[in-house]
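INTERNAL AUDIT FORM
Audit reference: QA-55
Scope: verify that the stored structure record matches its stored sequence.
Auditor: D.O.
Record contents follow.
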Amino acid sequence: MADARGQKRRAGLRLWLPALWLGALVLAALLAPWIAPKDPLAQDLFLGRLPPFWAVGAEPGYYLGTDSLGRDVLSRILHGARIALVVALVAGTLTCLIGASLGLLAGFLRGWTDLVISRLIDIWMAFPPVLFSILLIAVLGPGLDSIIIAIVVIDWTRFARVVRAEAMAQGAMDYVASAQVAGRGRISTMLVEILPNVLPTIVVLLTLEMGIAVIVEAILSFVNLSISTDDPTWGGMIAEGRTSIHQAWWVIVFPLITLFLTVLSFSQLGEGLKDRFDPVLR
């Protein structure tokens, strides 16, 4: 009994702690224009590399210090969260819809549908994802739309392969055969019987994909292939902080911590949701 309660408590923490962080991050991103203490693009070389508020030499109002150009680190993190979350939400959702739909069709309908989709997945996964994304950005040009398109084009196969396997496993169950014997059509069976049982896996993949999208955007920002270098992005801040880590460690540390906690929260949120809503685990 005590072990069961402990497991339940840990599962609750796995669900609610990431949800709390992500909820706070979303709220901060939405309210960034009003709660950010400074203009994230404002430069003042006389205020360059100010330390955080608790260190000697700090200036009032610059709570996490400034970078080499005198821009407020906290304000840039808050505004960078807007870009990261937009990429995570839009790219993750589009990738999920495309990949999960193709995987569901391939896994349940089988036959030539499965053959065509499976061969397409194999061909697509033969390309190195990092090089493929850089190539797409180079062709499309830097920008938020290009990043989202690159993530969707590359990562839909992740959903398609996993959902295909889950749909095949569910399609072999007795309840599917009973539904078809009762006269339910194939598409109706797929949507009403198969999809709800595959949905927990899709939710886990979606949250993981959102974390991956945040990482991809940060990587592309790090190599100056994201949006304009003037706009605040976590990857751009990390790239800039790398050059002055010994003089101003806070420029790289705080964006790194934010990025780490965000990606970890997306991952743990998916596992928590699976534990909570998966009918097999329950």
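Auditor finding: record pair retrieved intact. The chain is about 75% helix and 0% strand.
Action required: none
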